[in-house]
Amino acid sequence: MLALIAGVSRTVLAMARENDLPRWLSAVHPRFRVPHRAELALAGAVCLLVLTVDLRGAIGFSSFGVLLYYVVANLAAFTQSADRRRWPRWLQVSGALGCLVLVATLPWTSVAAGAAVFAVGVVYRVIRLRMTERRH
What we know:
The chain is mainly alpha-helical. Helix content is 74%, strand content 0%.
C-alpha cells in the first residue's frame, strides 16, 4: 500500500490539473518538487484502509486498477505510427490480453468493485466534459 503512494500521487496530480479531482491536489512543493497535498491525501486514505478493511480486498482492488492501467497503456502504444514505434504491434496486443487474463484471476469482488469505480469515473468524466463544452 505504501509503495503505491508515490506513483498514485502523480496520477492524482495530473487528474487535479485536468480538474478531474479537486484542484488543490495539484499543488507541488516549492522546495522538494513533489505533489505534497496528493501524497498526504493518499497517505490518509492508506491509513484509513489499513484500519478499516481486509487488506486482501484492497490489494485485489489495487491489482485491478494497475492491470487496467496497463491495458490502456498497451492499447495506447498500439495506436503509435510506424515511425514512432519501438516494438511490434503484436507485443502490445499480447500485453493487453495478458493483463486481461490476470484480471480474470482476481477475486470477483475485486473485479466488481474496480469495474464499478471505473464506471463511476467514466460517467463523471463524460458529464464534466459535456458541461465544459456547453460553457464554451
